[in-house]
Amino acid sequence: MSTENELFSAVDALLEQVAQDDLPVPAERKRLREAAGLSQAQIATALDARREAVGNWETGKTEPRPPKRAAYARLLEGLAARFPTPAADVPTAPPVPVVPEVFTGPVPAAEAPEAPAPAAAVRPAPAASSRRPGAKKAVAKKTTAATAGDVDPRFENGPLAVVDADADGQVLAYCVGGLVLDVPAKTIPALVDWTLTEGRLGQARLHRNGRDADPVLVLTAAAVERFGLPAALSEEERRASRLPESHKVVKQIARARLQMTQRGLGPWARLYRDPEGSKRRCVQLCVLPWNALDTREWGRKDDPQLLLTMDPADLAQYLGLYAARVMTPRGTTATTGLELMVALRPPTRAEKDEATGEFQRAFNTDALTAVYDVVECEVPDEHPILKGKFARHHLRTPAEMLMEEPYDWSRPLTDDECANEFLVAIDINMSFAAAANGLTVGLNGPTRLTGNPAFDPSLPGSWLVDLSHVDLARVKVGKQWTELDATRLPSPFTPKGDRPEGPAWYATPTVAYAVELGYDVAPIEAYVRTQSARYLDPWYKRLRDAYVETMADLGVTTDLGASEFLQAMTRSRSTDPVMSLLATAIKSTAKGGIGKLRQRSRGQVPYYEHYPALARETWRPDIRAAVLSNQRVGIHRKVLKTAAAGLYPAHIGTDAIVYPAPGPSPLDVLPTTEGKPVPGGFRLGVSPGMVKHQGTQTVLWAEQLFEERGGVFNIANLIKTDPTAGEGE
User: pTM of the full predicted structure?
Assistant: First the structure.
């Protein structure tokens, strides 16, 4: 039985706790500090706390903890005595109108009491997920708009959290919408279990036959230190992209009987427990200090520190918006882009067996469902199928390899063109995503056609055909035969713009374009796919909507005229750094996702040995080739339209096209008809496939570069007014 002294001590502790909780509301805390003329830094110094902590106390994101809580309460009590709340700030009830009892009609509008403003909808805080009684959900405007709608109660705290640790060692989880959760975990296994049981993090599936996204925890440098992880990977660990099994944290994970994927504990790591029925129990870690968010993809090339120094709350907003508009990050932007394809086109579905009444797995006909045989001409040089096929260091020719790549073409200016003062570079918005729109691609394995098969543009695949007879001096432009200066135009059939010299492998869109130009084609053989679909359409639409919405947040909308659009793009560079990062990440997702379809060996294994990417259903070099073919053909089609109007390009680099111009603006160079852009040509605008101004330089500047290098070279991607502009958007 407890003694009298022990009981008194317990009561005193309880009273002290009640007194400590008696703090004014966050807005009043800020008012008292400002009334006294004190800064957050002064209060932080007096309480031995961080200035950021004081700011969080004043916004309600976090609450002070003992012993700082009692001292903070004493300070506020003293300030309240000196600076009482002004009488004008005290809300008073409106007078109630007096209505005679005999009057039974409606209250006159002049006398009717004002209806109270509707209360903002606030989600209830999850039980035991936050030990902060004053934690507020100050939802950021853009995050709220992106996540508006019915909230899945399983994921009411959002798709992810940025995990940080304060100066006292307290672990905090910053979620979307300004929510900050108090995390009791002291180890990585405990953090994972807290996420699975109390975190309420994740994202609902994007397709009814898909699966929900696993919660992502982004670990800051402070959190990495708090959980016993190294601040940086050693050179050996970086090459292996994982910690060794001997590391204490890896041992902790093993003792807790948590499982990891074969990638181990690296910059992006998956930790999971066995499923509960059909419910996955998996958490993904994103370790910031280990370069999990590469600044070349997720940040700005000209200001990499912007991402690395971002406040945890801002980082949560940034990644939360990306998750809402694209999907929860799964690794690099390229990996996420590929995963988005699968999320929107799941390979399987549940189908009820009418005989047994049970559900079983069935394959979807519009998805990539299996790993099929590959074709020699479509695979990269290190693929196992090529072992023993060629001599060492052999460079495959176009007749041996499908060379569908973006443009890298340039030519010298003519004397007449040198009379222009400027070189204006325009850039196609998200050109690879735009090329995927409406494109029919193969879904099954290859079927070989021999004996000079007739070309069928409805069959996606690879065709061995001689296109050297196509003469750009006379081609069909918009179904009209047109005479052009072929010396100032790139060939549409090769990345370097050279005219083909004999039979070569081409993807279906390239061969179809030769027919469109008015020439007959006679394939020698082909590898085609008999099952096809517009597989990438939902992927394109998701990324298009994400990009257009993000650019609208930056003030660039789809309804702007050409001049207004150029002005808005200039202003957008300094409007909102976080939204600018989001636009960059979306563009990188589109570009990287297409590249992942033919992922090459990253040195994991020697040449001609099987590497992990080859085991994916989404390792489809033929689909990548079709997209790149369509992208290059699309550029050439618009180049011909402008050439028919008398304007010829001088350089093309990926999706940047350079034209000589009398003035520095794209308006000085792009031809118009009755004040409107030439039909089928380049159009200024924000939507994917339309163009923006990449930059302007003088002809003299270019000539100096050519003199230094000893000849003409491609300067398309050197002409940049915006240093953040990237290749191949």
Answer: 0.80
